[in-house]
Amino acid sequence: RGKRGTADLHKACDALRDYQLLVFGCFISGWVIYFFAAILQVWIFYSSQVAFIVTIPLGCFILAIVWYSVDLTRNLHLRDDE
To answer: Less crowded by CB within 10 Å, the N or C end of the chain?
Structure first.
């Protein structure tokens, strides 16, 4: 717990809450960058026809990840007074 008991525990929880949005944003950014890199890799190694076909579902995955992460965050976010 720390030298001051539960006061240190509350301080640690407050610090984690402060960084929660930043860490979640980095996590979602990592997924978006991963799918974007996969799209670029397909365009490099395969013909244009195959790459175009693959780009459509991967692009949909990118849009779905962004849409659901924004929607869930907006619906589940608590204000500071709650």
So the answer is: C
pLDDT tier at 18 (50, 70, 90 boundaries)? confident
Number of domains in the chain: 1
Does residue 10 form part of some domain?
Answer: no
Within 1-47, residue ranges assigned H as helices are 6-45
pTM: 0.70
Instruction: Read off the pLDDT of residues 41-59 as tens digits, 9 standing for 90 and up.
Output: 999 999 999 999 999 999 9
Contacts of 8 (CB under 8 A, 6+ apart): 1, 2
